[in-house]
């Protein structure tokens, strides 16, 4: 049973306030839940509650922390910590809004994750194993950012994430080894091109490019420089995050100072998939462009993973709707988009039922929390996305995967985890 619920303000990887909840059980075990924060958010996501006003540019979370102490804690105390579904339902009812705006999606996800961790701690199990009692799970295939862009890099390039997938790796650890070499070689190529201006929000190299294609060419060059074969050993994954520069079927490419309609953007991306070893594209069209997303999926979905993030916002209903519209073949799973662990799990199940692949994902504003590695493993999601290969809010997660793999001898999901691949 839950004895105590503590809430506090902590700081995320961008140095901004965020929420942490600590659930203490009567047996003395405890669980910590930390809320991450996105920068390129879908409009249907659970809403973050922040103070507004002048402190920390309005981003403080004092009201959020107070709400947890005043309203959420009394509802949780005395409850069975294992009753995740019942507790999450109580949180949703207590908030009472469709988008969790009153108490805040950040308050709810931190609480919900703290309850989950506390339940695993009380059972004396690592979180992944608490979620997978029969252990029939695999370490996820990582998608790792090499160049940041879009909202994470002052919109220096239009595309948000230029990532690699080590599809030739036989283990999680080997996938990280291959990525480390590609990341280092990409940095050397950037340094040779001129002023190297550090890294973007998720640790990827700052995108000093004049065309999106230049980033793709440099990425292929980095894979080759690392002595790896593009396509068969290491492939490319992109997050276009098109909702950031497109609405109503019009897409404004800042780099080229040019507007494309949905068909033209679609054609451009199809051409990229033919020219470059691309195995996955996320949010190729904007969240309001379902026709475009369905057309793109029809065009490449048999050979490329098409991932819905802003469009699906980790919602089981949205996933079922997408499946009936034929849009996407994979779902990004971000717990704080849904707002509770139970709803996150339901979105993952809806994806599985629709035959869609799943990728558990961090946010651009992260913390040292490694819970998503356990969710991806314990839920057997198949894939994991946590940003780049630098900065410890990212490396903490990759390193946790190494520990789980070595301690438990779990298999590696590998390229079979990709939708329509392998
Ligand atoms: P965000 O973006 O965390 O900044 O919202 C991540 C993504 O689009 O996948
Ligand atoms: Zn995304």
TrEMBL record:
Keywords: Cytoplasm, Glycolysis, Lyase, Magnesium, Metal-binding, Pyruvate, Secreted. One of its GO terms (cellular component) is extracellular region. Residues 2-131 form the Enolase N-terminal domain. It is found in: Cytoplasm; Secreted; Cell surface. The keyword Zinc does not apply. The active site is at 202 (proton donor), 334 (proton acceptor). Its main location: cytoplasm. It catalyses: (2R)-2-phosphoglycerate = phosphoenolpyruvate + H2O. Mg(2+) binds at residues 239, 282, 309. Its cofactor is Mg(2+). Signal peptide: none annotated. InterPro entries: Enolase, Enolase-like_C_sf, Enolase-like_N, Enolase_C, Enolase_N. GO terms for biological process: glycolytic process. Gene3D superfamilies: Enolase-like C-terminal domain (3.20.20.120), Enolase-like, N-terminal domain (3.30.390.10). Mg(2+) is required for catalysis and for stabilizing the dimer. Its EC number is 4.2.1.11. (2R)-2-phosphoglycerate binds at residues 160, 334, 363-364, 385. Pathway: Carbohydrate degradation; glycolysis; pyruvate from D-glyceraldehyde 3-phosphate: step 4/5. GO terms for molecular function: magnesium ion binding; phosphopyruvate hydratase activity. Residues 136-420 form the Enolase C-terminal TIM barrel domain. HAMAP family: Enolase. Belongs to the enolase family. Catalyzes the reversible conversion of 2-phosphoglycerate (2-PG) into phosphoenolpyruvate (PEP). It is essential for the degradation of carbohydrates via glycolysis. This is Enolase. The lineage of its organism: Bacteria, Pseudomonadati, Pseudomonadota, Betaproteobacteria, Burkholderiales.
